[in-house]
Amino acid sequence: KPTDGVGKPSRLVYSNKNGPQPTMTYPNMTIFHYLHEIEAGVISDAELHKFMGLNLFCGRFAYTEIVRSTFGTILGVTGTLGDSDVRFLSAHFAVQRTTFVASLYDVTRKYNFSDGFVELQPDLDAWMRAIQRLIRSNHSAGRPILVYFESDELLDAFMADFSEEFFRVVKSGSDNEIVRTAVERAGQTGAVTLLTRMHGRGLDFTFDEKRAPEGFLVFCTFYPKSESENTQIIGRCGRLGKDGRFQYILNLAQIAENFGVALSVGEAVDKRKGG
Questions:
Q1: SS (H, E, C) 14-56
Q2: Does 25 have pLDDT greater than 80?
Q3: Residue environment code for 223-253, b if the CB has 16+ CB neighbours within 10 A, otherwise e
Q4: Comparing 61-70, 73-82, 245-254, which segment has the lowest mean pLDDT?
Q5: Model confidence over 189-201: pLDDT tens digits?
Q6: With the CA atoms of 91, 93, 95 and 101 taken in that order, what torsion angle do they form, in degrees rounded to the nearest 10?
Q7: Which residues lie below 8 Å from residue 4, measured CB to CB, with a gap of 6+?
């Protein structure tokens, strides 16, 4: 709406699924949006100077590597930690006390083994075909889908064999803007987001409860090497208090390589059932 008295809008406002977001900006991109609209004569330059500037990254570092010699007290918040993680923090960073904050949504959701909870495939080709089949069959229902891969290389291999225009891809090295956009759009009806394992924690996905009342469908295409990582990836489907649905799609050849356990499909099923 015109707010500068000359009949033109004085600022740009981004909008997401929750409507207009007056405080939302994007590093570097927002300034070029303003310059483009001003050049086109669509918007006035009344607020341009508020956004004139570029964000320059001069370096990346971990705070835990510099604070020990600078600060007397370290406070931190983290996601799920295993016993070995707690011991590491205590030994290397002198963390002396920890506390636990219960889930905002009350009870912790645990997923028990049941029919369809784990799909086992003998090799890479069969594993890729299974992922393709499950994406196709569930995408048609409109439910938002998250698919986690162990590495960029495996995600790339899958994309080389099977790619759709509705895919949104988030790799280990994806910049913040790509990650932010993927998180905002992952919950849309029919959205399919492919991610690597490093994005299995810390991303707060949301969805339209009217269009997707059951929440996310999450496929994990590898078995995590730590229980904390496993818990975090499973938790991606339990957003906004909804259970969602979770399923493993495992390549037994990959399990043999990662864990040193060689199984056939029949043997793996027996062990899953407690045999």
A1: EEECCEEECCCCCCCHHHHHHHHHHHCCCCCCCCHHHHCCCCC
A2: no
A3: bbeeebbbbbbbbbbbbbebebbbbbbbbbb
A4: 61-70
A5: 888 999 999 888 7
A6: -110
A7: 10, 44, 46
